[in-house]
Specification:
alpha/beta, 7 strands
């Protein structure tokens, strides 16, 4: 039986509990053997990170300590130039020939999918698990462009049976938190007990980040 690997990319600037809950939810919902958290090096669609890669990587490692089934993959940090998802997934597929690869993304990311670099090729590489923030609405233009009606499935088993190019939308994942909100709370010295791992919070304070 093929193993199942989830891929959750992001800036992780900083990693927060919403990221961990997303990874854990996907792992449970899809019966994944592993979820790889892939920190971006140089983003394509947004401003560069506020924090250097070595800090973001250190916080990621702290956040997943003791969490079986989660691991950090530095594939994008090791690659020069802009971090394109299609290149990352293609390389992960090459390295994990005995695994089904599923790309985990939020509704915001899904709704911008057709603006991604070489998105058509990405659809040929993996299947997709979409986490909806607060019942987000699907962009009809994106749905039409990717022919979503013929690609959407209603179960984890169908997702892996159909394979690359298929989409499964979560129906009950509503954790709504962004790293932007976390950074704002840090600036305002607000309580982050529900938002950040204690070790991550201590690391941020010790290294005087996001001030």
């Amino acid at each position: 039986m093929m193993s199942r690997i989830g891929v959750l990319g992001g800036m992780f600037d900083p990693i927060h509990n919403g990221h961990i809950q997303a990874a854990s939810y996907a792992s449970q919902c899809l019966s994944l053997d592993m979820v790889k958290l892939v920190p971006c090096s140089i983003p394509n669609h947004r401003a560069e990170t506020q924090t250097d890669a070595h800090h973001r990587l250190a916080m990621l490692e702290l956040a997943i300590e003791g969490r079986a089934g989660l691991e950090v993959d530095t594939i994008e940090l090791e690659r020069t130039g802009v971090s394109y998802s299609v290149d990352t997934i293609r390389e992960l597929v090459r390295k994990n020939k005995e695994a089904d690869i599923v790309f985990i993304l939020g509704m915001d990311a899904f709704n911008s999918l057709t603006s991604w670099y070489d998105w058509e090729s990405l659809l040929d590489q993996c299947c997709f698990f979409v986490l909806s923030r607060m019942r987000g609405t699907i962009n009809p233009d994106v749905a039409a462009a990717i022919n979503l009606e013929d690609r959407v499935v209603d179960s984890a088993e169908s997702l892996f049976k159909e394979g690359a190019g298929s989409f499964y939308f979560a129906t009950d994942f509503n954790y709504d938190l962004s790293s932007t909100e976390v950074r704002s709370k840090l600036l305002e010295n607000k309580n982050l007990g529900d938002d950040l791992n204690d070790k991550v919070y201590s690391y941020i304070k010790s290294n005087n980040l996001y001030h």
